[in-house]
Design a protein that fits this description.
The chain is an alpha/beta fold. The protein contains 11 helices and 9 strands. Helix 2 packs across helix 3.
Length: 263
């Protein structure tokens, strides 16, 4: 599967930076970071399968998504990269680092752990399926339909970035909503499920937790250090699951300092 990507930046002596979005996201969620990171890095921001402008597939799991990113690296002739992934994208990044540690120079994982999670998106899927894009005349119409299931206006705005007008002039979802719903057990699973028991990534790893988020808990430390023995965690207080959007200045500072560190 050939993923869609956006590439920018002058590059440097440092490895290229590949950015992977979370569930229901696209590369465009990272525009602010891309603009900053591109001052020092060759930045490749990716639409993962079933998201954005990348191809759709009925199959989705972390082994497949890691293979997609590896194929992109081969296509772009990138031998070694730094990886930055949020939530689902963080699990993809962890999977790739564990499978191909020699291809990953540094790893940044945003607000997710290498563990299986309970279903956190029932209301989200219910809201999305309640919207019939072909029957709405504006994003406002779709937003009103989502409100019955999702109270948070910022979450609704994030989801509605997936709404676009097709060639017929009708609204449609860019994401493959049925596949994401049907394969949600694989999305909520721990990324190393398909790996050998001794799989490790010993390179530098930075986990960034939103202080108010439930996704990175102290009890996950053992799982993190077993797979990523050099990992360290930074907590950004006063934000939730999207620290890069809620506290961008601090988030960007942490990531830039980590990525630019030698060794």
């Amino acid at each position: 599967m050939q993923l869609y990507y956006h590439r920018t930046g002058e590059g440097s002596a440092l490895p290229p930076l590949i950015i992977l979005h979370g569930l229901f996201g696209t590369w465009e969620n990272w525009r602010a970071q891309i603009k900053l990171f591109a001052e020092q890095f060759d930045v490749i921001a990716v639409d993962l399968r079933n998201h954005g402008l990348s191809p759709h597939s009925e199959a989705i799991d972390y082994a497949l998504m890691a293979t997609d990113v590896l194929e992109l690296m081969e296509r772009l002739q990138i031998e070694r990269c730094a990886l930055l992934g949020h939530s689902m994208g963080g699990k993809v990044a962890m999977q790739l680092a564990l499978e191909q540690p020699q291809r990953v120079a540094r790893l940044v994982v945003v607000d997710v752990a290498p563990v299986a999670y309970e279903h956190h998106h029932r209301d989200t899927f219910a809201g999305l399926f309640a919207v019939d894009p072909s029957q709405v005349s504006s994003r406002r119409d779709a937003d009103l339909q989502l409100q019955a299931h999702i109270d948070d206006a910022s979450v609704r705005a994030f989801l509605l970035k997936n709404l676009y007008r097709n060639e017929s002039g009708q609204f449609a979802w860019r994401m493959n909503l049925p596949a994401l719903h049907d394969q949600y057990d694989n999305i909520s699973a721990a990324p190393p499920a398909s790996l050998e028991p001794e799989a490790r990534y010993s390179g530098p790893v930075l986990f960034i937790k939103g202080g108010n988020s439930i996704y990175l808990q102290p009890e996950y430390q053992e799982a993190i250090l077993r797979l990523f023995p050099a990992a360290r965690v930074k907590i950004i207080a006063g934000c939730g699951h999207w620290p890069h959007a809620e506290k961008p200045e601090l988030f960007n500072k942490l990531v830039m300092r980590f990525l630019a560190t030698a060794g």
